[in-house]
Amino acid sequence: MAFGVGVHRSNTPLQWASDHSAGYATSFINIVCTQDSEFDFSGDKNGTDNWNEICTQDQEDTTDAEVNYPAFHFVNTYAESYGLSGDFAVGWYMPSIEELCDIYHSLYQNLRLLRETDGKASL
After folding, report:
1. Is 10 part of any domain?
2. Which pTM was predicted?
3. What is the pLDDT along the chain (123 residues), one digit of tens a residue?
4. Domains in the chain: how many in total?
5. Is residue 79 part of a domain?
6. Is the Cβ–Cβ distance between 33 and 98 less than 8 Å?
7. Are 53 and 3 in contact (CB under 8 A)?
8. Domain containing residue 90
9. Does residue 78 sit within a domain?
10. Can you name the residues that pair with 33 across neighbouring β-strands?
């Protein structure tokens, strides 16, 4: 699977759920992804369904995601906030831990290859 990674970040740290939201104390068992070893994961490895599952289980607090689920609000409004359009404006979501590890692993591998070529890589 190919990932697009946003280059903008929030100006403040963002919790996935605020302390006073129902989701903060809820175990969303249908979307749990567990890291079993360095590169092995089990459970829901695809983060695209996480927000929908949270909305299903916490229908009240998700109506004000900016306050109650600030990290998800950042992701859900990313395209609008940064003026993205067309294909770049759809599909933004909070990655699962497995997807996040894939992103970091790919970044590490690409940086390693660039260092090995002394920054003189060609396309």
Report:
1. no
2. 0.82
3. 556 778 788 888 899 999 999 999 999 999 999 999 988 999 999 999 999 999 999 999 999 999 999 999 999 999 999 999 999 999 999 999 999 999 888 888 888 888 888 766 555
4. 1
5. yes
6. yes
7. no
8. 22-116
9. yes
10. 43
